[in-house]
Structure formats: C-alpha cells, structure tokens
Amino acid sequence: MKKNLLKKIWIDFSEKKNFLYFEKYNYNWIKSITLFLKEWKNDSSLIEVTTSGSTGFPKKIFLKKKYMVHRAIKSIKYLNLDKKNNIKGLLCLSPNFIASKMLLVRAMILNWKILCVYPSSNPLEEIKDYRFDIASMVPIQIFFSKKYLNNIKNILIGGSNITNFIEKKLQNITTNCYCVYGLTETYGHIALKLINGLNKDKYYKSLNDVTLSIDKRNCLKIHFPEMNNMCIQTNDIVELKSSKTFNLIGRYDNIINTGGIKIIPELLESKIEPFMNERRFFISSIKDDIFGEKIILVIEGNFFVVKIPKFIFKKKYFFPKKIFFVSKFEENFIGKIKKIKIVNNLIT
After folding, report:
1. DSSP state of 337
2. What is the phi/psi pair of residue 130, to 5°?
3. Which long-range contacts (CB under 8 A, 24 or more apart) does 224-227 make?
C-alpha cells in the first residue's frame, strides 16, 4: 500500500451530523463501510451479506436488520459495555466480514466512536498510541499485533481457529481475549470463550438467548427462541457439555477416510503443532489408489526437516504420508486459509 493513501478514519456515531461525510474518499475499504451504513439507513428491513465461503463458494444471503440489532444488544450486555459511556472501538477487519458489520451496528445503537483502519495483518502498527474498548480481529492479526494488544480492553477473535502457540502468547496481557464462535448466518458470534487471565473459560458459552443441541454426527445445532424459533444446523463437530456450553473439535466436511478409518484433521493438528517451528500449517488429504485417501501435511514457508516423534500418535495411519511446503498460504477476505484450493494446486 502506498504511503500517501488514507489508512484510518474516525466515525463518531454520537454526532448529529451525517456520518456519511467521508464517502468523498475514493478508497474501496471506505466505500464498503459507506455502502453498509447507507443500506442500514434505507427503508428495507433486510441487509444483503456474503458468507465467507470457508467450506465452498461464498454465497449471498439476506439478514434481517431487527435480528442484527437483537444480536448486537445481546453481545454488548455479555461484555458489560451496555452501561458505559464514551466507548471507542477499532474496526480493522474487512468491512465485508460479518464481525465488522456487527461492530458497526453495536456502535450505532450505543453511539460509540469507531476508528476504521485499512485492513492488514498488523493493524496496530501505526496506531500504537491509541486506546480502545473493543475490537474484532483474526488470529494472524493477533500474532503480528501482540506487542500492542494491551491497548485494547476486549478483543473478539474469530474467522479461524487460534493455535495453542498464539494462545500462550496472550496469557501475560491485560486484555480480555475472547475466541468467538458464529457464522454469517447466525448474525455473527453466538458464543464466546475467554482464553486468558485468571478466570479464563474451559468451554464456549452461548449468549443467553441461544440454546444448543447436536445431531447424530455430533454437529452443533443452534436454536434462537427469541428470533422466531430460527434454527441453524452447522457442520461443526463439538463436545457438547450443556445446552449453553461446548468445545469445538473439528468440521464434519474435513473428515478424512483413510482405509475405512475416519480421522478428524483438527485433532491431528493440535498434536503436531509443537513441532511446526511456529509455522502455519494444516492437515488434509489427497486421493490414494489403495486407501481411498491419504493424510498430507501442508506447511507455509521454506523447507525444514519435520520431526514428529513416534509417541505422538498411537496408530501409524495418523502420520502424514506426504509433507508439502507452500511459500505463502492463500487466504479469503477474513484470513481463512483456502485449504481446498491450496491442495488442488499441489496435485495438479
């Protein structure tokens, strides 16, 4: 990005003047914010949004504005921000991300002041002297911004799973760091898990208007009694502890069937992470003439000798049969790794 480009702009929703005054700026990231705010103020009861496409192609869906307000209020109350004045928020994700839209909705409801910055992997680098009450970030932003995270009181971390390595880095900061769970279809997060501090959570806790169950695959089902009994069936395999608490295990879409043995790649990833030299990586599979599928390990960056101790896995079929190195992982607009595309490129 060129140095002379606008990288940040404040929106004060407590001001009476038209907050669309900045639409004069000819920058795509600002235009996206302006477009959403215009759509929010129009007469339609619906907002068109695009899903992240993490399990396939992104698709356009419509969300009801009244339910966006409902979900925003529930989140504000959970974080105890509903009775505080002069709240300052940081918008550092793509405006197309549901987390960004919901942050703006919360700001409009309670007249917050929001600093919008150009989305990047290190959004705090040029605003290190600013202080905020709340921000939403993805794990890669957390990693590159860790030096300045104490400048934010509450961070909502979503978009993709946070690694144990990054989580350990958060234990000595004063910020409340929450992993959040939600989908575009659920109007943003429906559950939070505090992952640092003396009172950190063992499980994700749903907001008080949400109840949870599982289907026969152990995939999470989300119920919204206060939103016309809406129900969302996910493909996320969970350990359900109660109708309000759970932990994520993996995605049903990602299950690898190798020789009749069904393997959840996320479980393998958690075991081998300590041996990955702090690199990003993922477990996937490619076709095999004998086993149907065989496990592969894909690592970002330059080659190094991977040493996974034999005691890590009790069964040899858990071990990756091939290891690939990719110079840089391709991501979607919210920082999720495009695993399917990367693997397809490896085998074509």
Report:
1. B
2. -90, 155
3. 226/70, 227/67, 227/70
Nearest to 319 by CA among 271, 280, 255, 252: 271
266-278 pLDDT tens trace: 999 999 999 999 9
Cα 68 to Cα 63, 146, 216, 293, 303, distances in angstroms:
7, 30, 30, 42, 46
Q: Which domains does the chain have, with CATH numbers?
A: 8-201 (3.40.50.12780), 255-347 (3.30.300.30)
Pairing of strands 46-50, 60-64: antiparallel
Question: What gap in Å lies between CA 172 and CA 177, rounded to an integer?
Answer: 11
Q: Residues 133-167: pLDDT tens digits?
A: 999 999 989 999 999 999 999 999 998 889 888 99
End-to-end CA distance of the chain: 32
What tens digit of pLDDT does each residue of 255-307 get? Answer: 999 989 999 999 999 999 999 999 999 999 999 988 899 999 999 999 999 99
